[in-house]
């Protein structure tokens, strides 16, 4: 056994140098007041000692065994994006299966067993009498998002300072995603938290309670049309505040096949409308050919939609036309929100079939003689009263295989305000922009929607078309989207350790029009050579041909090449029509930066052991 | 007026040097025994003389005015493909509209007007008495395919030596495509030939008659299973003789929206079967789930198909999965027939609807519970009796919008032997391999066809998959094909004249699955900058969304860049799902060389005037 005080400099790499000597010890304890990146590396190295049976470190407040890999979280001051270490990934892979939390709990509750270590006692738990709790606003909670500022989270109205627990978290630094906000959405992702002892652990970190009104809507500010917008999870990366446009950190996308509602990208064109579900009405009409009288005007309440039509559920991926616009913008500037790779998500949608509703509203076979489009109008509107609108081909709306829904549930929950409460259209396989939210009106027509977003936006153009020459009439409105894929893990610019020996890549792949993703090729040398990733689709099995509405997640573990320190990771997907992603960005560049589906590229650096 | 004997060397460019002097003359006649490329250039230059009213040249046998641009045809001895000059293209553009033939005819008949030119008389026409005609075999005719070997063609049993006419042909060197074979298919392409005076002109070149038996099938050779194969047009480029696989010269593809049957690529897997239409039977059966009894066994005669079901017509492009394989093979060797860009064609197919036939055979809605595929079996078989087979998804076969046909006509004619006489399946939007010819059997099944071509061929793989690692079970059978386009004119390696000042590119573009081609981008600098080509679709108008089964032809005229002598022409198409072609070949390389749809690239050289 050996007890190491915290005297080393992380840069000096003393522990690495001392490895041969340490190699022969059975128990090693490292004393430190702060969890530093280097210590985690050292501990991971020491875990390979052939005789080692226990490896611990002690904080200034507690000595906690930590054979689990600990977290590293750093925020680079010179860039706005949080950068994550990938180091823990492999070390914690097994723990995530469920044993990790149990282990952490056991370790936490059995500090007494550390009889051979002389350390200060842990602090007393905070008072447990509810009357004594401080009350914090959400804003105050949101300021606690780092080890330096303390790490606070909320859970069912309670506020918890979990700073001390961060290093013990079996899931590693994922816990920092919840910093400053609610843990519930993460716990929904990781079923391992659904255990009583997890709540017991959390209770010990309670520091106060969340102000009651922060769980309700903020008081309205009549001068700001966006004042009624709902609260959003702080982990979202905001591309625009008003209207709200935000995406989750990429790695969250590949944590679960279905994207939790709070993390699902939000793409609003206008303020979120306040809709009273009790008085909500959806108007449906069959508009005859231009000039003829309208008919089949039907008004449906939310209850009508829920009770008069069979409830259908479709798992479908929605992607914004601007997803990955930043890749295009970086190649040559475009106009549009600077989306990363997170303007995509996969959800299980439930509602009435659009086809059923159209037939109930009086759509008849004869209408096929003139009808071509189904227009949708949202209840969201600008200060001038212009509402959001879009349309889809009639065939898609009417097809039994088209699976279009008037959805009132998302992942088993009531449709969230940001996703169109109380009803949105879900048009599987079709660009997000046609999946109109806060749906107010459906019109069967011989013409497309006349809205700005159908006529003069969401269209693709040649790289040779600029703002002086663009004629929106010359291009079709985007409907089905092309094949797409991206690498979510590791992040661009990540550093990996040579000693890891291998690297696991994760990502998503999806194609529009119900075309199933059949292969994802991955390269670690910029596209010179390729490997085939493992695909993970719906556990329920393969969809029928032409109805593959949901993405596939993919994963691939590759050995780290010995002869290079820079890796250019690339992925490209293939769909069931054998469409492939274009290689480069510039040849598909377009002035609005839509349809950005060139090969996704991520650069990572391999750090040799002697680098530190 | 000036009379120039043929004394100049083409390399010396004397005519160019003498231009200022010649510039002032009103009539110029050039004496030459052979039509040489330089003379054509010189003549084109001289046509710009401000005072010139007539420009003629004289052969050793005839003096023929030729204000029309004359042909150049060269065969490079070091390469197997015929290379065509593009020089005549612009000069003859107007003539092709119909005036050209008239002009040529007029010129031909009014040699007497050349009274101011002293030249030998034209030869006497060959004897017109039928009894005196020599009889030639098709093989003998086929040997006459160049100016050196004389140019022979056949028309309605007659054999014609048109060598002298080649330089007068208003359509330029296109006439050489007919050399050694029949002119009828070309005349079907160019309606301008449907005039009496054209026949009168042709009659003057008659040299004999085609052996009667050469218009019938060759006598059967029982030792050769391919001995009953039909005759094919000699213009086809043969990739394999037995089984027959051949494609037309690229430029023919863009001459007409619908590809004439004789020029439509032939892709046979086995000998062409001899089917007696009188006794032909198509078997249709609904095969229950594995193990259950078969039912709905129906046997339909050709008359049944023609008379018991409505005749439907669909214009659809068929493309071989191996089209453009040579591009892939050139990047890295693959196994397969070395198709150029001509394994694609567009035809108007007529027949019974597959859906109608399946319903008539007893397909019922309940069958959707187990049925997934429709299998097709051809009557073509190998020596062991194995027949060609393939299958398509049931949904495609049953969909009213799928437009699948049991076709017995192709472009208004009885289905040709090479294209499946008497009946083939046409599966619009789907790879050629599933459009089974000489159809003998249709089976509704819960499984795909077990044939080699469905299970172990016609599938796409990663570039990392080689013959040691390939597992055909891991990839789906190709059905819908991805977006494709190619440049048919100019040909790779062509030379264009600087003095042309501009260059016209032509090509085709098509996508599978009924996705309409919405844009073709063209580059003359290897893909750095792009222009948008003009698309030419069906004159009947745009198809409904998802039913764009036919290709679009495209064309673009660009100014010749002043600063370069080498142009790299590139095209890439975009379909209605905004799928685009991949940039490069190697990243989509696959061991069988299928799905070769990277940007098509053609290199041309600009020849400056002083080059010659």
From TrEMBL, chains A, B:
User: Record keywords: DNA-binding included?
Assistant: no
The Gene Ontology CC terms held by the record are: mitochondrial intermembrane space
Give yes or no: UniProt keyword Heme.
yes
Q: Where in the cell is it found?
A: Mitochondrion intermembrane space
User: For bias kind Pro residues, which ranges apply?
Assistant: 120-129
Question: Pfam families given for it?
Answer: Cyt-b5, Mo-co_dimer, Oxidored_molyb
Chain segments carrying region Disordered: 115-135
Q: Give a GO biological-process term.
A: sulfur compound metabolic process
Per UniProt, what is one GO molecular function of this protein?
molybdopterin cofactor binding
Keywords from the UniProt entry: Heme, Iron, Metal-binding, Mitochondrion, Molybdenum, Oxidoreductase
Q: What is its main location?
A: mitochondrion
Give the main EC class.
oxidoreductase
Reaction(s) this enzyme catalyzes, per UniProt: sulfite + O2 + H2O = sulfate + H2O2
The metabolic or biological pathway listed in the UniProt record of this protein is:
Sulfur metabolism; Energy metabolism; sulfur metabolism
Q: Please list the cofactors this protein needs.
A: heme b; Mo-molybdopterin
Which EC number(s) does the record attach to this protein?
1.8.3.1
Cytochrome b5 heme-binding domain segment(s) = 133-211
Q: How does it assemble?
A: Homodimer.
- Function (record text): Catalyzes the oxidation of sulfite to sulfate, the terminal reaction in the oxidative degradation of sulfur-containing amino acids.
Q: What is this protein called?
A: Sulfite oxidase
Give the organism, scientific name: Knipowitschia caucasica
Q: What is the lineage of its organism?
A: Eukaryota, Metazoa, Chordata, Craniata, Vertebrata
């Amino acid at each position: 056994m050996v007890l190491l005080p915290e005297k080393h400099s992380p840069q000096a790499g003393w522990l690495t140098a001392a490895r041969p000597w340490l190699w022969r010890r059975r128990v090693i304890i490292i004393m430190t007041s702060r969890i530093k990146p280097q210590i985690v590396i050292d501990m991971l190295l020491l875990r390979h000692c052939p005789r080692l049976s226990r490896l611990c470190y002690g904080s200034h407040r507690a000595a906690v065994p930590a054979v689990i890999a600990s977290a590293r979280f750093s925020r680079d001051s010179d860039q706005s994006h949080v950068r994550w270490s990938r180091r823990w990934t492999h070390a914690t892979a097994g723990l995530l299966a469920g044993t990790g939390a149990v282990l952490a709990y056991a370790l936490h509750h059995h500090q007494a067993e550390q009889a051979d270590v002389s350390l200060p006692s842990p602090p007393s738990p905070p008072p447990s009498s509810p009357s004594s709790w401080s009350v914090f606003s959400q804003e105050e909670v949101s300021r606690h998002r780092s080890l330096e500022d303390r790490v606070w989270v909320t859970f069912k109205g309670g506020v918890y300072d979990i700073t001390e627990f961060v290093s013990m978290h079996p899931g590693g630094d994922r816990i920092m995603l919840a910093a400053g906000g609610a843990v519930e959405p993460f716990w929904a992702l990781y079923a391992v938290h659904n255990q009583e002892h997890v709540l017991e652990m959390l209770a010990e970190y309670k520091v106060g309670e969340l102000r009651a009104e922060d769980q309700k809507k903020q008081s309205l500010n009549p001068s700001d049309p966006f004042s009624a917008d709902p609260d959003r999870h702080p982990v979202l990366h905001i591309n625009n505040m008003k209207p709200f446009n935000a995406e989750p950190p990429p790695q969250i996308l590949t944590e679960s096949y279905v994207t939790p509602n709070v993390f699902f990208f939000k793409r609003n064109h206008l303020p979120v409308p306040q809709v009273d579900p009790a008085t909500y009405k959806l108007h449906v009409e069959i508009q005859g050919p231009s000039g003829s009288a309208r008919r089949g005007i039907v008004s449906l309440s939310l209850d009508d939609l829920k009770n008069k039509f069979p409830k259908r559920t479709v798992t479908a991926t929605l992607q914004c036309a601007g997803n990955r616009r930043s890749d295009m913008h970086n190649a040559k500037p475009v106009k549009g929100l600077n989306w990363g790779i997170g303007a995509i998500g996969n959800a299980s949608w439930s509602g009435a079939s659009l086809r059923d509703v159209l037939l109930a509203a009086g759509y008849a076979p004869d209408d096929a003689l003139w009808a071509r489009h189904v227009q949708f109008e949202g209840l969201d509107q600008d200060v001038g009263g212009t509402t959001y609108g879009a349309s889809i081909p009639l065939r898609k709306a009417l097809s039994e295989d088209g699976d279009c829904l008037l959805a009132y549930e998302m992942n088993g929950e009531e449709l969230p305000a940001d996703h169109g409460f109380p009803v949105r259209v879900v048009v599987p396989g079709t660009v997000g922009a046609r999946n109109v939210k806060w749906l107010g009106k459906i019109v069967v027509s011989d013409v497309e929607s006349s809205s700005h977003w159908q006529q003069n936006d969401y269209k693709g153009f040649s790289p040779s078309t600029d703002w002086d020459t663009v004629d929106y009439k010359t291009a079709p409105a985007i409907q089905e989207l092309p094949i797409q894929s991206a690498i979510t893990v590791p992040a661009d610019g990540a550093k990996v350790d040579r000693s890891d020996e291998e690297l696991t890549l994760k990502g998503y792949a999806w194609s529009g029009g119900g075309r199933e993703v059949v292969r994802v090729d991955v390269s670690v040398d910029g596209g010179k050579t390729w490997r085939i990733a493992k695909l993970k689709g719906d556990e329920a099995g393969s969809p029928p041909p032409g109805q593959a509405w949901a993405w596939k997640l993919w994963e691939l573990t590759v050995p780290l090449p010995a002869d290079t320190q820079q890796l250019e990771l690339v992925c490209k997907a293939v769909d069931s029509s054998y469409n492939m992603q274009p290689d480069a960005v510039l040849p598909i560049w377009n002035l609005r930066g839509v349809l950005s589906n060139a090969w996704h590229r991520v650069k990572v650096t391999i750090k040799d052991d002697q680098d530190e």
